[in-house]
Design brief:
heterotrimer; A mainly alpha; B alpha/beta; C mainly alpha; A: mainly alpha; 2 strands; B: alpha/beta; 9 helices; 10 strands
Chain lengths: 291, 245, 297
């Protein structure tokens, strides 16, 4: 029973992280209809950004969140303005957008190798080793922090999208970019901003992830896949939906440890991805996913 | 026995009944017109008959045999084909290659190589001088003919035309109407056509069925239907002679 | 040019390089059947490469079966294995591609830990046969000829047209009688089988294979890069792309190993933004310009 609570709590903590990552991927897809295949790369960069700030400048990872968010946001805007803008929108851009962003991911990977070598890194601070007792279980502070931050972000995002002028503009563009142009909304600017928000979320997810797990320049593919699982399962535009989906994924992963040998637990995410894509024909954001 | 018939055909999307317990039939050699206000369920009806979407209830019968569960690509091989309201040429294939794709699925109803038949159909619709061109270079009228040619190449018994005439100028529309009549007369194809352009429907159709909100509200010869007050009410505000899609 | 060894004495280095190029060309052409003709970009083809390689290696280790038969068997198993992706085939565009990342990685994990079969991280060693390694040049060339011919035939035939139709608009294709599921299954099995055969040949060539390499994501990326650099969806494309890829790889590994990924990334970016049909596109543009010049003269 104790073990069960341990695992359940672990799952909840992980869910916040997954929800944040998923939102980063989902918001870009929801508004631009582009799958950001460099998502994993940006997550990796977020992790390194935090690591550099911690290592070289002694900045506490939680304090560096605003910096990482800002830097990742700018990276995203740049990615849009320099690269993604030139692609045809929607289905026509399909394979092209995938390959373009994939190419950029490779560049990010290489950049990281050159700057940081291929060794595993992680961000360890005093928080990583201290723990707190919750419901009779020992929980590390870093995990709790990830949960807290990981929960605040989607809520903040939801409020942003529904209560602010910019947020409403973004939602409008997601629904109907042409009409928005007609009423004077600068759609290109919205796209750039949205891409930036997506990468900002990815960056901060990377930072948070770095406080929990080791990473290296090659990291990112499993994060990409997990984000995708959550996005497809949860549906866009729904904070509770994404949250629930993130929780489901986290629960399945954590409890899979009971059944599967440890090295296969990452395969769980991959298998779930395929299952989810096949069993949920309801479609992503109302689009037909299946052929 | 009618060539094609629907029996209590129904399709619901969420709470909406797009097609509601529809019974209609197509006799061999007929041109059947399907008209109705926007949103009446006409294109959904085509998708159901063609097998692109499964019915929520009811069935489609070809030669009296139920086609329930038969997907679109098999329906084509059985001899039922449809064109699209918004034409969908394959932009990466030339005009003749587009038609060959259809010609490959004539299901034994035609003889000769697919390529030869494709060229013959192109000549029939008048596109033979654009054989190797790409669809992007065709005018709308040309692309509508291509869509028609592709469907014809499948050697269908039932050809379903979804607003082929809409959007064409009067001369083009007249030419296409003549073509449709020739298809029925010379190629033994029975036609169901959805159309908003009233003069075309009235002059081409042997019989007309009127749909409104998924249900059949009238059926008969063009003259009978036009004078039916129920139909006039349903079209409230729409012109008899001026409607274009 | 490929028949030069009959005439000249090529250095061992060039000879080996060409052998590897042949294997890459065949693999790239087969990948392109899915990615270029059907329009389903797979980021997981290393799965079939690895299956083919390990099955062939296991057969050779188990009994004195002539290597070519082992390669064939490996290819067959790989083709059947590829059919496991059937549920993912129904997915459109980007969803299919992402699913293949998942399938590829899941396959890698599974086989890496199936130590009895693959030897785990220690890999499998095969008896070294220099004569076979030398003859692989001709086997590779033969495979390239067969696969190129098949590609050309496919493109010209009704099959090719239907594949391209599915790529353009799967619904409209179905409305004309094309069974997407059938062709998707067929092409992924064929594509997987050919790539599996190249995997077996690779195993015989190096006499040592290891799952993290054979099934690796980097290897899957290789297929994509070769086809895209050369010109996705064309017959010439994967051929050119594979040659460029192998040569570039040799050069980079020798001179700038640390820039390896970045160069490919930049290449991809440039190609997508400026010349989507890669090298083949550039050549076509050049050809048109030359024809225009000649026309004026």
């Amino acid at each position: 029973m104790d073990r069960f609570i341990d695992l359940a709590l672990s799952a909840v903590l992980l869910a916040g992280l997954y929800a944040t990552m998923a939102y980063g991927l989902g918001i870009i897809y929801g508004v631009l209809r582009v799958v950001n295949l460099a998502h994993g790369g940006v997550i990796m960069m977020g992790a390194y950004m935090g690591w550099v700030l911690h290592r070289k400048l002694g900045v506490d990872p939680y304090l560096s969140i605003p910096i990482v968010v800002a830097a990742s946001y700018l990276l995203g805007v740049a990615m849009y303005r320099v690269l993604v803008r030139h692609l045809p929108r929607g289905a026509a851009g399909g394979p092209a957008s995938l390959l373009l962003l994939f190419g950029f991911w490779l560049v990010l990977r290489n950049g990281a190798y050159l700057l940081f070598t291929g060794d595993d890194q992680s961000i360890t601070t005093a928080w990583s080793t201290s723990s707190v007792v919750v419901l009779g279980s020992q929980l590390s502070v870093s995990r709790l922090a990830v949960l807290a931050i990981g929960s605040v972000i989607p809520v903040g995002l939801h409020l942003f999208l529904h209560r602010t002028h910019l947020g409403r503009a973004i939602r409008a563009v997601a629904q109907n970019p042409d009409s928005c142009t007609l009423v004077g909304v600068d759609v290109e600017r919205i796209y750039a901003i949205t891409f930036g928000i997506g990468t900002a979320l990815a960056g901060v997810a990377g930072l948070l992830s770095a406080t929990l797990f080791a990473f290296n320049p090659g990291s990112g593919s499993s994060e990409l896949l997990k984000s995708f699982v959550v996005v497809v399962l949860g549906g866009m535009g729904s904070v509770p939906g994404t949250g629930l989906a993130a929780l489901i994924l986290a629960v399945v992963e954590v409890f899979a440890i009971l059944v599967l040998p440890s090295y296969l637990t990452s395969a769980v995410g991959f298998v779930m991805l395929v299952l989810v894509l096949v069993i949920r024909p309801g479609g992503l954001f109302g689009h037909r996913v299946l052929g | 026995m009618p060539l094609l018939a629907t029996r209590a055909l129904t399709k619901t999307f969420g709470g909406l009944r797009a097609v509601d317990a529809l019974d209609l039939h197509l006799e061999e050699g007929e041109i059947l017109g399907v008209i109705g206000p926007n949103g009446a369920g006409k294109t959904t009806l085509f998708s159901l008959i063609a097998g692109s979407i499964p019915p929520s209830a009811g069935e489609v019968l070809l030669d009296g045999v139920s086609m329930l569960g038969r997907p679109a690509f098999k329906m084509v091989r059985s001899g039922v084909v449809r064109t699209h309201q918004i034409v969908k040429p394959f932009p990466n294939l030339s005009v003749v290659e587009n038609v060959v794709v259809g010609a490959l699925h004539a299901g034994g109803r035609a003889t000769g190589s697919a390529r030869d038949r494709a060229e013959e159909v192109l000549a029939f619709v008048g596109l033979e001088d654009r054989t190797h061109a790409f669809p992007g270079t065709l005018t709308l009228a040309g692309r509508k003919r291509l869509e028609l040619a592709r469907a014809l190449a499948t050697a269908p018994r039932v050809l379903m035309l979804d607003e082929v005439i809409a959007g064409l100028n009067p001369a083009e529309a007249q030419a296409l109407a003549t073509l449709i009549r020739r298809i029925r007369d010379e190629r033994q194809v029975s036609v169901i056509m959805i159309e908003h352009v009233m003069p075309a429907v009235m002059s081409l159709s042997d019989r007309v069925v009127v749909l409104d909100r998924g249900r059949k509200i009238a059926e008969g010869t063009p003259t009978e239907v036009v004078n039916d007050s129920v139909v006039v009410d349903a079209y409230l505000g729409e012109n008899h002679g001026g409607g274009s899609a | 040019m490929a028949v030069l060894p009959l005439v000249l004495e090529l250095s061992i280095y060039t000879h080996n390089l060409m052998t590897l190029t042949f294997l890459s060309v065949a693999g790239a052409l087969a990948w392109n059947w899915m990615g270029g003709f059907l329009g389903q970009v797979s980021f997981g083809h290393a799965a079939t490469f690895g299956v083919g390689g390990f099955v062939a290696a296991r057969i050779v280790l188990w009994a004195p079966v002539p290597a070519p038969l082992a390669w064939l068997a490996g290819g067959l198993v790989a083709g059947v294995f590829a059919l496991g992706a059937h549920p993912a085939l129904r997915l459109r565009g980007p969803y299919f591609s992402i699913a293949t990342i998942g399938l590829g990685e899941a396959t890698r994990l599974l086989f890496t830990y199936w130590e009895d079969f693959t030897g785990g991280s220690s890999g499998l060693s095969l008896p070294i046969e220099t004569a076979l390694k030398h003859r692989l040049y001709w086997w590779g060339l033969g495979l390239v000829v067969v696969v190129t011919a098949a590609t050309w035939l496919i493109r010209r035939s009704g099959l090719g047209l239907q594949l391209l139709a599915i790529k353009a608009d799967v619904d409209a294709a179905a409305d004309l009688g094309v069974s997407a599921t059938f062709y998707q299954d067929l092409m992924i099995a064929l594509s997987g089988a050919v790539v599996g055969v190249t995997g077996g040949m690779w195993a015989s060539y190096f006499s040592f294979i290891e799952p993290n390499d054979m099934f690796g994501f980097d290897r899957s990326i290789g297929f994509v890069l070769m086809a895209v650099i050369g010109g996705v969806g064309t017959v010439l494309g994967p051929l050119l792309g594979a040659v460029v890829f192998v040569l570039l790889r040799q050069y980079l590994l020798a001179s700038y190993p640390q820039l390896y990924l970045g160069v490919y990334g930049l290449l991809l970016i440039f190609i997508i933004l400026f010349e989507p049909l890669g090298l083949t596109g550039l050549l076509r543009r050049l050809w048109r310009r030359l024809s225009a010049l000649r026309g004026k003269a």
